Amino acid sequence: MPSSSSLDRLFASAAGAGAVPPPNAKSPADSSSSTNHDPNQPGAIALPGGYTKLPSGIVLDAAGKPCKQCTSGSAWRDMMRKSTAWTLLHSIAATYPPQAPPSMQATLRSFITTFSQLYPCGTCAEDFRLWMRQPGNEPRVAGQDELGVWMCEAHNAVNVKLGKAEFDCALWKQRWRDGWADGRCA
Hints:
mainly alpha; disordered N terminus; 2 domains
């Protein structure tokens, strides 16, 4: 777990988020998970900024909603029960430099190519490679903004194939980096 000072910085940055969730956004607290998110349950630990760490490892914000940025990956995954591949890819975009140096751009292009070859679902990997070969779908890796939008477009292409709703790519930073304006950081 990060040190207390890094947690304080994390909580302060999460509390200052200035974005609005999409109208159809579903909070993890709204999920049908059987996880008990009661901040008063036995074993819950009070943290700075009104946050609470539950025995399950989930960290709740001051409003009692699960905080994605503050919760360990394994605890979040257990709660969400979703693919971690997209979480990895979107997290890379969210932490990528605003203007990446050429060496980092080359490294990321190589990673994306390797990922598309080694992803365990062969059909998924091939679909991703085919999608990237289409004009306009080449990895855009010059900086964080274009990478984040590109990653969202790639994810939406999969969502369409699966019959899922598309995400508004104008909101990618709110979802994956900055948090929502209503104070939840999930």
